[in-house]
Design goal:
The protein is mainly β and 475 residues long. Helix content is 12%, strand content 38%. The chain has helices spanning 3-16, 28-37, 61-77, 187-197, 302-308, and strands spanning 47-49, 81-85, 90-93, 96-97, 102-106, 111-114, 123-128, 131-136, 140-143, 146-151, 155-157, 225-228, 231-236, 239-241, 248-251, 254-259, 262-265, 279-284, 287-290, 295-297, 312-318, 321-322, 329-331, 339-349, 356-361, 369-382, 386-391, 407-420, 423-428, 436-442, 445-446, 454-456, 459-465, 467-469, 472-474.
Length: 475
Protein backbone atom coordinates (compact mmCIF):
# COMPACT_ATOMS: atom_id res chain seq x y z
CA UNK A 1 0.00 0.00 0.00
CA UNK A 2 1.44 3.43 -0.94
CA UNK A 3 2.00 6.14 1.69
CA UNK A 4 -0.95 8.14 0.33
CA UNK A 5 -3.28 5.15 0.43
CA UNK A 6 -2.10 4.28 3.94
CA UNK A 7 -2.84 7.85 5.12
CA UNK A 8 -6.33 7.73 3.64
CA UNK A 9 -6.89 4.28 5.13
CA UNK A 10 -5.94 5.44 8.66
CA UNK A 11 -8.03 8.61 8.25
CA UNK A 12 -11.09 6.61 7.23
CA UNK A 13 -10.47 4.15 10.06
CA UNK A 14 -10.70 7.00 12.59
CA UNK A 15 -13.97 8.15 11.01
CA UNK A 16 -15.36 4.61 10.99
CA UNK A 17 -14.51 3.88 14.61
CA UNK A 18 -16.61 6.61 16.28
CA UNK A 19 -19.79 6.07 18.33
CA UNK A 20 -18.95 2.46 19.20
CA UNK A 21 -22.01 2.09 21.41
CA UNK A 22 -24.17 1.82 18.27
CA UNK A 23 -22.39 -1.21 16.79
CA UNK A 24 -24.58 -4.07 15.54
CA UNK A 25 -24.76 -7.56 17.02
CA UNK A 26 -26.02 -10.90 15.65
CA UNK A 27 -29.70 -11.34 16.55
CA UNK A 28 -29.95 -14.95 17.73
CA UNK A 29 -33.56 -14.62 18.87
CA UNK A 30 -34.80 -13.47 15.46
CA UNK A 31 -32.68 -16.08 13.68
CA UNK A 32 -34.11 -18.91 15.76
CA UNK A 33 -37.63 -17.59 15.34
CA UNK A 34 -37.27 -17.61 11.53
CA UNK A 35 -35.68 -21.06 11.53
CA UNK A 36 -38.50 -22.54 13.60
CA UNK A 37 -41.34 -20.81 11.77
CA UNK A 38 -40.66 -21.90 8.16
CA UNK A 39 -43.39 -24.39 7.25
CA UNK A 40 -42.63 -27.36 5.02
CA UNK A 41 -45.02 -28.69 2.35
CA UNK A 42 -46.93 -31.93 2.90
CA UNK A 43 -47.73 -34.44 0.16
CA UNK A 44 -49.70 -37.61 -0.37
CA UNK A 45 -47.58 -40.69 -1.09
CA UNK A 46 -49.33 -41.65 -4.34
CA UNK A 47 -47.17 -41.53 -7.48
CA UNK A 48 -47.98 -40.60 -11.08
CA UNK A 49 -45.29 -41.30 -13.72
CA UNK A 50 -45.33 -39.07 -16.80
CA UNK A 51 -44.60 -41.96 -19.19
CA UNK A 52 -47.90 -43.54 -18.14
CA UNK A 53 -49.69 -40.52 -19.61
CA UNK A 54 -47.91 -40.27 -22.96
CA UNK A 55 -44.56 -38.64 -22.26
CA UNK A 56 -41.61 -40.20 -24.06
CA UNK A 57 -37.92 -39.56 -24.59
CA UNK A 58 -38.66 -39.97 -28.31
CA UNK A 59 -41.56 -37.51 -28.42
CA UNK A 60 -41.34 -33.85 -29.42
CA UNK A 61 -41.66 -31.02 -26.92
CA UNK A 62 -45.31 -30.22 -27.68
CA UNK A 63 -46.45 -33.80 -27.09
CA UNK A 64 -44.43 -34.12 -23.88
CA UNK A 65 -45.69 -30.77 -22.61
CA UNK A 66 -49.29 -32.00 -22.94
CA UNK A 67 -48.47 -35.36 -21.38
CA UNK A 68 -46.57 -33.90 -18.40
CA UNK A 69 -49.27 -31.31 -17.77
CA UNK A 70 -51.92 -34.03 -17.99
CA UNK A 71 -50.03 -36.03 -15.36
CA UNK A 72 -49.83 -33.00 -13.06
CA UNK A 73 -53.54 -32.27 -13.50
CA UNK A 74 -54.52 -35.91 -12.83
CA UNK A 75 -52.39 -35.98 -9.69
CA UNK A 76 -53.81 -32.67 -8.45
CA UNK A 77 -57.39 -33.87 -9.06
CA UNK A 78 -56.61 -36.97 -6.99
CA UNK A 79 -55.49 -34.80 -4.08
CA UNK A 80 -51.82 -34.43 -4.92
CA UNK A 81 -48.71 -36.56 -4.67
CA UNK A 82 -45.53 -37.30 -6.64
CA UNK A 83 -45.30 -36.60 -10.38
CA UNK A 84 -42.21 -38.47 -11.56
CA UNK A 85 -39.85 -37.75 -14.44
CA UNK A 86 -38.26 -41.23 -14.63
CA UNK A 87 -34.53 -41.86 -14.39
CA UNK A 88 -32.25 -42.32 -17.35
CA UNK A 89 -34.36 -40.41 -19.87
CA UNK A 90 -34.36 -36.93 -21.42
CA UNK A 91 -37.72 -35.28 -22.04
CA UNK A 92 -38.08 -32.21 -24.24
CA UNK A 93 -40.98 -29.99 -23.22
CA UNK A 94 -42.52 -26.53 -23.14
CA UNK A 95 -43.75 -24.68 -20.05
CA UNK A 96 -45.59 -26.63 -17.35
CA UNK A 97 -47.68 -25.43 -14.40
CA UNK A 98 -47.58 -26.98 -10.95
CA UNK A 99 -50.76 -27.26 -8.88
CA UNK A 100 -51.34 -27.44 -5.12
CA UNK A 101 -50.14 -30.67 -3.56
CA UNK A 102 -47.72 -31.55 -6.38
CA UNK A 103 -44.16 -32.74 -5.81
CA UNK A 104 -42.43 -32.83 -9.21
CA UNK A 105 -39.73 -35.48 -8.83
CA UNK A 106 -36.94 -35.47 -11.42
CA UNK A 107 -35.18 -38.72 -10.72
CA UNK A 108 -31.41 -39.13 -10.79
CA UNK A 109 -30.22 -39.43 -14.38
CA UNK A 110 -33.40 -37.86 -15.77
CA UNK A 111 -33.30 -34.58 -17.72
CA UNK A 112 -36.27 -32.27 -18.19
CA UNK A 113 -35.21 -29.94 -20.99
CA UNK A 114 -37.20 -26.87 -22.04
CA UNK A 115 -37.04 -26.00 -25.71
CA UNK A 116 -36.75 -22.64 -27.44
CA UNK A 117 -40.23 -22.61 -28.96
CA UNK A 118 -41.88 -19.47 -27.57
CA UNK A 119 -45.33 -20.63 -28.70
CA UNK A 120 -45.12 -23.33 -25.98
CA UNK A 121 -44.94 -20.68 -23.24
CA UNK A 122 -48.41 -19.19 -22.58
CA UNK A 123 -48.84 -15.72 -21.10
CA UNK A 124 -49.13 -15.70 -17.31
CA UNK A 125 -49.18 -13.21 -14.46
CA UNK A 126 -45.65 -12.62 -13.27
CA UNK A 127 -43.03 -9.96 -12.57
CA UNK A 128 -40.05 -9.04 -14.70
CA UNK A 129 -37.15 -7.21 -13.07
CA UNK A 130 -39.47 -6.16 -10.25
CA UNK A 131 -42.29 -4.89 -12.48
CA UNK A 132 -45.66 -6.65 -12.63
CA UNK A 133 -46.72 -7.86 -16.06
CA UNK A 134 -48.13 -10.66 -18.17
CA UNK A 135 -45.31 -12.40 -19.96
CA UNK A 136 -44.21 -15.77 -21.30
CA UNK A 137 -44.63 -18.44 -18.65
CA UNK A 138 -41.56 -19.51 -16.73
CA UNK A 139 -40.47 -23.00 -17.75
CA UNK A 140 -41.95 -24.26 -14.47
CA UNK A 141 -44.72 -22.03 -13.12
CA UNK A 142 -47.17 -22.00 -10.23
CA UNK A 143 -49.80 -19.43 -9.27
CA UNK A 144 -51.38 -19.22 -5.81
CA UNK A 145 -50.52 -22.88 -5.17
CA UNK A 146 -49.93 -24.43 -1.75
CA UNK A 147 -47.66 -27.34 -0.86
CA UNK A 148 -45.55 -27.64 -4.00
CA UNK A 149 -42.07 -29.01 -4.58
CA UNK A 150 -39.44 -29.76 -7.20
CA UNK A 151 -37.19 -32.55 -5.92
CA UNK A 152 -34.98 -35.43 -7.03
CA UNK A 153 -31.36 -35.68 -8.12
CA UNK A 154 -32.06 -35.15 -11.81
CA UNK A 155 -31.47 -32.14 -14.06
CA UNK A 156 -33.75 -29.34 -15.23
CA UNK A 157 -32.29 -27.64 -18.30
CA UNK A 158 -33.69 -24.30 -19.43
CA UNK A 159 -32.18 -24.60 -22.91
CA UNK A 160 -30.55 -21.16 -22.80
CA UNK A 161 -27.61 -20.48 -25.11
CA UNK A 162 -26.39 -18.02 -27.72
CA UNK A 163 -28.72 -19.42 -30.37
CA UNK A 164 -31.87 -19.44 -28.20
CA UNK A 165 -33.17 -17.42 -25.27
CA UNK A 166 -29.98 -15.58 -24.38
CA UNK A 167 -29.79 -13.59 -27.59
CA UNK A 168 -33.01 -11.82 -26.56
CA UNK A 169 -30.98 -9.77 -24.04
CA UNK A 170 -29.79 -7.66 -26.97
CA UNK A 171 -26.05 -8.11 -26.48
CA UNK A 172 -23.92 -9.20 -29.42
CA UNK A 173 -21.73 -11.36 -27.17
CA UNK A 174 -24.80 -13.49 -26.52
CA UNK A 175 -25.66 -13.88 -30.19
CA UNK A 176 -27.96 -10.92 -30.84
CA UNK A 177 -27.87 -9.26 -34.27
CA UNK A 178 -29.52 -6.09 -35.55
CA UNK A 179 -33.19 -6.46 -36.38
CA UNK A 180 -33.85 -9.58 -34.31
CA UNK A 181 -35.98 -9.85 -31.17
CA UNK A 182 -34.55 -8.13 -28.11
CA UNK A 183 -35.75 -6.64 -24.84
CA UNK A 184 -33.87 -3.44 -25.70
CA UNK A 185 -36.02 -2.70 -28.77
CA UNK A 186 -38.69 -1.03 -26.64
CA UNK A 187 -40.32 -3.68 -24.45
CA UNK A 188 -38.19 -3.14 -21.35
CA UNK A 189 -38.55 0.64 -21.63
CA UNK A 190 -42.34 0.27 -22.03
CA UNK A 191 -42.57 -1.89 -18.93
CA UNK A 192 -40.48 0.59 -16.94
CA UNK A 193 -42.76 3.41 -18.06
CA UNK A 194 -45.84 1.37 -17.15
CA UNK A 195 -44.47 1.12 -13.63
CA UNK A 196 -43.77 4.85 -13.42
CA UNK A 197 -47.25 5.69 -14.73
CA UNK A 198 -49.07 3.23 -12.50
CA UNK A 199 -50.71 1.38 -15.39
CA UNK A 200 -52.96 -1.29 -13.80
CA UNK A 201 -52.61 -4.99 -14.57
CA UNK A 202 -56.27 -5.26 -15.62
CA UNK A 203 -58.89 -2.97 -17.13
CA UNK A 204 -62.23 -1.99 -15.60
CA UNK A 205 -63.71 -5.33 -16.70
CA UNK A 206 -60.92 -7.36 -15.16
CA UNK A 207 -59.33 -8.18 -18.50
CA UNK A 208 -55.58 -8.30 -18.97
CA UNK A 209 -54.11 -4.84 -19.57
CA UNK A 210 -52.74 -4.47 -23.08
CA UNK A 211 -49.98 -2.16 -21.86
CA UNK A 212 -48.81 -4.69 -19.26
CA UNK A 213 -48.88 -7.64 -21.68
CA UNK A 214 -45.71 -8.84 -23.40
CA UNK A 215 -45.35 -11.58 -25.97
CA UNK A 216 -42.51 -13.39 -27.72
CA UNK A 217 -41.96 -10.45 -30.08
CA UNK A 218 -41.05 -8.30 -27.05
CA UNK A 219 -38.13 -10.47 -25.98
CA UNK A 220 -38.61 -10.46 -22.21
CA UNK A 221 -37.07 -13.82 -21.34
CA UNK A 222 -38.90 -16.16 -18.94
CA UNK A 223 -37.46 -17.50 -15.69
CA UNK A 224 -36.60 -21.17 -15.30
CA UNK A 225 -38.74 -21.57 -12.16
CA UNK A 226 -41.26 -18.84 -11.38
CA UNK A 227 -43.61 -19.31 -8.41
CA UNK A 228 -46.15 -16.54 -7.86
CA UNK A 229 -48.01 -16.10 -4.55
CA UNK A 230 -47.39 -19.65 -3.38
CA UNK A 231 -47.18 -21.10 0.13
CA UNK A 232 -45.02 -23.90 1.50
CA UNK A 233 -42.52 -24.45 -1.29
CA UNK A 234 -39.60 -26.90 -1.44
CA UNK A 235 -36.85 -27.01 -4.10
CA UNK A 236 -34.43 -29.80 -3.20
CA UNK A 237 -31.50 -31.76 -4.69
CA UNK A 238 -32.08 -30.89 -8.36
CA UNK A 239 -29.50 -29.46 -10.76
CA UNK A 240 -30.64 -26.36 -12.67
CA UNK A 241 -28.89 -25.42 -15.91
CA UNK A 242 -28.97 -22.80 -18.67
CA UNK A 243 -31.92 -20.71 -17.55
CA UNK A 244 -33.35 -18.28 -20.12
CA UNK A 245 -33.26 -15.54 -17.44
CA UNK A 246 -33.30 -15.71 -13.60
CA UNK A 247 -33.14 -19.31 -12.38
CA UNK A 248 -35.31 -19.49 -9.23
CA UNK A 249 -37.82 -16.69 -8.74
CA UNK A 250 -40.22 -17.04 -5.81
CA UNK A 251 -42.54 -14.01 -6.06
CA UNK A 252 -44.73 -12.92 -3.13
CA UNK A 253 -44.36 -16.39 -1.61
CA UNK A 254 -44.30 -17.61 2.00
CA UNK A 255 -42.30 -20.46 3.53
CA UNK A 256 -39.79 -21.28 0.79
CA UNK A 257 -37.00 -23.83 1.28
CA UNK A 258 -34.20 -24.24 -1.28
CA UNK A 259 -31.93 -27.10 -0.24
CA UNK A 260 -28.94 -28.87 -1.86
CA UNK A 261 -29.69 -27.32 -5.25
CA UNK A 262 -26.89 -26.98 -7.80
CA UNK A 263 -27.19 -24.01 -10.16
CA UNK A 264 -24.96 -23.64 -13.22
CA UNK A 265 -26.00 -20.72 -15.38
CA UNK A 266 -23.62 -18.33 -17.14
CA UNK A 267 -26.23 -16.58 -19.27
CA UNK A 268 -27.15 -12.87 -19.19
CA UNK A 269 -29.05 -11.77 -16.07
CA UNK A 270 -28.55 -15.34 -14.90
CA UNK A 271 -29.25 -14.80 -11.20
CA UNK A 272 -29.32 -18.01 -9.18
CA UNK A 273 -32.12 -17.43 -6.65
CA UNK A 274 -34.18 -14.22 -6.41
CA UNK A 275 -36.76 -14.21 -3.62
CA UNK A 276 -38.97 -11.19 -4.36
CA UNK A 277 -41.35 -9.84 -1.70
CA UNK A 278 -41.13 -13.19 0.11
CA UNK A 279 -41.48 -14.01 3.79
CA UNK A 280 -39.67 -16.86 5.55
CA UNK A 281 -37.08 -18.24 3.14
CA UNK A 282 -34.35 -20.80 3.82
CA UNK A 283 -31.53 -21.34 1.29
CA UNK A 284 -29.07 -23.97 2.51
CA UNK A 285 -26.31 -26.27 1.24
CA UNK A 286 -26.60 -24.99 -2.34
CA UNK A 287 -24.00 -24.40 -5.06
CA UNK A 288 -24.11 -21.31 -7.27
CA UNK A 289 -22.09 -20.64 -10.42
CA UNK A 290 -23.87 -17.85 -12.26
CA UNK A 291 -23.57 -15.13 -14.86
CA UNK A 292 -25.05 -12.58 -12.44
CA UNK A 293 -25.85 -12.49 -8.72
CA UNK A 294 -25.82 -15.83 -6.93
CA UNK A 295 -28.59 -14.86 -4.50
CA UNK A 296 -30.40 -11.56 -5.09
CA UNK A 297 -33.16 -10.53 -2.69
CA UNK A 298 -35.74 -8.17 -4.20
CA UNK A 299 -39.08 -6.49 -3.43
CA UNK A 300 -40.25 -4.65 -6.55
CA UNK A 301 -38.97 -1.77 -8.62
CA UNK A 302 -39.67 1.95 -8.20
CA UNK A 303 -43.35 2.96 -8.17
CA UNK A 304 -44.54 -0.61 -8.71
CA UNK A 305 -42.61 -1.84 -5.70
CA UNK A 306 -43.71 1.03 -3.48
CA UNK A 307 -47.37 0.45 -4.40
CA UNK A 308 -47.00 -3.26 -3.69
CA UNK A 309 -45.41 -2.47 -0.35
CA UNK A 310 -44.25 -6.03 0.34
CA UNK A 311 -40.81 -6.32 1.93
CA UNK A 312 -38.63 -9.38 1.54
CA UNK A 313 -38.03 -10.52 5.09
CA UNK A 314 -36.96 -13.30 7.41
CA UNK A 315 -34.42 -14.99 5.14
CA UNK A 316 -31.63 -17.42 6.08
CA UNK A 317 -28.74 -18.35 3.78
CA UNK A 318 -26.35 -20.96 5.17
CA UNK A 319 -23.64 -23.43 4.15
CA UNK A 320 -23.72 -22.42 0.49
CA UNK A 321 -20.88 -22.30 -2.02
CA UNK A 322 -20.63 -19.42 -4.49
CA UNK A 323 -18.27 -19.37 -7.47
CA UNK A 324 -18.77 -16.93 -10.36
CA UNK A 325 -21.30 -14.11 -10.15
CA UNK A 326 -21.71 -10.38 -9.65
CA UNK A 327 -22.30 -10.94 -5.96
CA UNK A 328 -22.61 -13.76 -3.43
CA UNK A 329 -25.44 -12.49 -1.22
CA UNK A 330 -27.06 -9.43 -2.79
CA UNK A 331 -29.94 -7.18 -1.80
CA UNK A 332 -31.42 -5.17 -4.65
CA UNK A 333 -31.48 -3.46 -6.87
CA UNK A 334 -35.26 -3.87 -7.28
CA UNK A 335 -35.87 -3.39 -3.56
CA UNK A 336 -38.51 -0.63 -3.29
CA UNK A 337 -40.64 -2.62 -0.85
CA UNK A 338 -37.73 -2.87 1.55
CA UNK A 339 -35.87 -5.77 3.11
CA UNK A 340 -35.33 -6.86 6.69
CA UNK A 341 -33.97 -9.73 8.77
CA UNK A 342 -31.52 -11.44 6.41
CA UNK A 343 -28.99 -13.85 7.92
CA UNK A 344 -26.10 -15.39 5.94
CA UNK A 345 -23.47 -17.61 7.54
CA UNK A 346 -21.02 -20.46 7.06
CA UNK A 347 -20.66 -20.01 3.31
CA UNK A 348 -17.63 -20.40 1.05
CA UNK A 349 -16.94 -18.05 -1.87
CA UNK A 350 -13.95 -18.04 -4.20
CA UNK A 351 -13.53 -16.80 -7.76
CA UNK A 352 -11.89 -13.86 -9.56
CA UNK A 353 -15.23 -13.67 -11.38
CA UNK A 354 -17.19 -13.29 -8.13
CA UNK A 355 -17.31 -9.53 -7.81
CA UNK A 356 -18.60 -9.00 -4.26
CA UNK A 357 -19.36 -10.99 -1.12
CA UNK A 358 -22.17 -8.97 0.51
CA UNK A 359 -23.70 -6.37 -1.80
CA UNK A 360 -26.52 -3.90 -1.22
CA UNK A 361 -27.48 -1.94 -4.34
CA UNK A 362 -30.23 0.65 -4.71
CA UNK A 363 -30.80 4.26 -5.77
CA UNK A 364 -33.05 7.31 -5.41
CA UNK A 365 -35.65 5.83 -7.77
CA UNK A 366 -36.35 2.99 -5.35
CA UNK A 367 -37.10 4.17 -1.82
CA UNK A 368 -37.58 1.50 0.84
CA UNK A 369 -35.72 0.58 4.00
CA UNK A 370 -33.06 -2.14 4.07
CA UNK A 371 -32.28 -3.10 7.65
CA UNK A 372 -31.11 -5.84 9.98
CA UNK A 373 -28.78 -7.57 7.55
CA UNK A 374 -26.34 -10.04 9.15
CA UNK A 375 -23.40 -11.95 7.70
CA UNK A 376 -20.80 -13.98 9.59
CA UNK A 377 -18.41 -16.92 9.31
CA UNK A 378 -17.77 -16.59 5.57
CA UNK A 379 -14.55 -17.84 3.95
CA UNK A 380 -13.55 -16.08 0.72
CA UNK A 381 -10.59 -17.06 -1.40
CA UNK A 382 -10.85 -14.05 -3.66
CA UNK A 383 -13.42 -11.70 -5.09
CA UNK A 384 -13.07 -9.27 -7.94
CA UNK A 385 -14.12 -6.03 -6.25
CA UNK A 386 -15.39 -5.60 -2.66
CA UNK A 387 -15.96 -7.80 0.37
CA UNK A 388 -18.76 -5.48 1.51
CA UNK A 389 -20.32 -3.01 -0.90
CA UNK A 390 -23.21 -0.69 -0.11
CA UNK A 391 -24.16 1.44 -3.11
CA UNK A 392 -26.97 4.00 -3.07
CA UNK A 393 -26.06 5.27 -6.55
CA UNK A 394 -26.55 2.06 -8.53
CA UNK A 395 -27.70 2.64 -12.14
CA UNK A 396 -27.34 6.38 -11.65
CA UNK A 397 -28.48 7.05 -15.24
CA UNK A 398 -31.77 5.19 -14.81
CA UNK A 399 -34.76 7.12 -16.19
CA UNK A 400 -37.29 7.32 -13.36
CA UNK A 401 -38.91 9.58 -10.80
CA UNK A 402 -36.08 10.60 -8.47
CA UNK A 403 -36.29 11.75 -4.86
CA UNK A 404 -37.36 8.38 -3.42
CA UNK A 405 -34.37 7.97 -1.15
CA UNK A 406 -33.59 4.52 0.21
CA UNK A 407 -32.27 3.86 3.71
CA UNK A 408 -29.67 1.21 4.58
CA UNK A 409 -29.13 0.67 8.28
CA UNK A 410 -28.20 -1.92 10.90
CA UNK A 411 -25.86 -4.09 8.85
CA UNK A 412 -23.37 -6.48 10.47
CA UNK A 413 -20.46 -8.37 8.91
CA UNK A 414 -18.28 -10.40 11.27
CA UNK A 415 -15.78 -13.26 11.15
CA UNK A 416 -15.34 -12.95 7.40
CA UNK A 417 -11.96 -13.70 5.82
CA UNK A 418 -10.89 -12.83 2.28
CA UNK A 419 -7.50 -13.49 0.71
CA UNK A 420 -7.72 -11.11 -2.25
CA UNK A 421 -9.93 -8.23 -3.38
CA UNK A 422 -9.75 -4.72 -4.79
CA UNK A 423 -11.56 -3.09 -1.84
CA UNK A 424 -12.34 -4.26 1.65
CA UNK A 425 -15.33 -2.10 2.55
CA UNK A 426 -16.86 0.12 -0.13
CA UNK A 427 -19.73 2.43 0.80
CA UNK A 428 -21.25 4.87 -1.69
CA UNK A 429 -23.79 7.10 0.01
CA UNK A 430 -25.62 10.17 -1.25
CA UNK A 431 -24.86 13.85 -0.69
CA UNK A 432 -28.47 14.88 -0.09
CA UNK A 433 -28.63 13.39 3.40
CA UNK A 434 -27.35 10.54 5.55
CA UNK A 435 -29.20 7.45 4.29
CA UNK A 436 -26.51 4.89 5.29
CA UNK A 437 -25.87 4.43 8.98
CA UNK A 438 -25.14 1.91 11.72
CA UNK A 439 -22.90 -0.41 9.73
CA UNK A 440 -20.51 -2.71 11.62
CA UNK A 441 -17.62 -4.80 10.27
CA UNK A 442 -16.08 -6.72 13.17
CA UNK A 443 -13.43 -9.42 13.67
CA UNK A 444 -12.70 -9.75 9.97
CA UNK A 445 -9.46 -10.27 8.05
CA UNK A 446 -9.05 -9.01 4.49
CA UNK A 447 -5.67 -9.74 2.89
CA UNK A 448 -4.43 -8.82 -0.56
CA UNK A 449 -6.60 -5.69 -0.68
CA UNK A 450 -5.32 -3.55 -3.54
CA UNK A 451 -7.10 -0.26 -2.80
CA UNK A 452 -8.00 -0.38 0.90
CA UNK A 453 -11.47 0.90 1.81
CA UNK A 454 -13.61 3.45 0.00
CA UNK A 455 -16.21 5.84 1.41
CA UNK A 456 -18.21 8.58 -0.32
CA UNK A 457 -21.39 10.49 0.43
CA UNK A 458 -22.94 11.10 3.82
CA UNK A 459 -22.84 8.29 6.38
CA UNK A 460 -22.76 7.88 10.14
CA UNK A 461 -21.93 5.21 12.70
CA UNK A 462 -19.72 3.19 10.37
CA UNK A 463 -17.69 0.86 12.64
CA UNK A 464 -14.65 -1.15 11.61
CA UNK A 465 -13.71 -3.07 14.73
CA UNK A 466 -10.81 -5.52 14.98
CA UNK A 467 -10.54 -5.56 11.22
CA UNK A 468 -7.17 -6.77 9.91
CA UNK A 469 -6.57 -5.28 6.48
CA UNK A 470 -3.30 -6.23 4.81
CA UNK A 471 -1.83 -7.20 8.20
CA UNK A 472 -2.72 -3.86 9.77
CA UNK A 473 -5.45 -3.65 12.39
CA UNK A 474 -8.16 -1.05 12.14
CA UNK A 475 -9.16 0.08 15.62
Amino acid sequence: MTATKLFLFVLLANVFATNLCAQERWDDATYQSIEQSIRQPQFKTQTFVVTDYGASALADARKNQKAIQKTIDKCAKAGGGRVVIPQGQRFLTGAITLKSGINLVVEEGAVLEFVFQPELYPLVETSWEGLDCYNLSPCIYAFKAKDIAITGKGTIDGGGNRQTWWLWCGATKYGWTEGTVSQKLGARARLLQNGEDGVPMTDEKGRRSVQRTFTAKDGLRPQLVGLNQCERVLIEDVTLLRSPFWVLHPLKCEDVTVRRVRIENDGPNGDGCDPESCNRVLIEDCYFNTGDDCIAIKSGRNSDGRRRGMASQNIIVRRCTMKNGHGGVVIGSEISGGCRNVFAHDCVMDSPLLDRVLRIKTNSCRGGVIEHIYMRDIQVGQCGESVLKINLDYEHNEVCCRGNYPVVRHVLMENVTCQKSKYGVQIIGLEEDCFVHDITVRNCRFDGVAEGNFLSGKTRNIHLLHLILNNQEVF
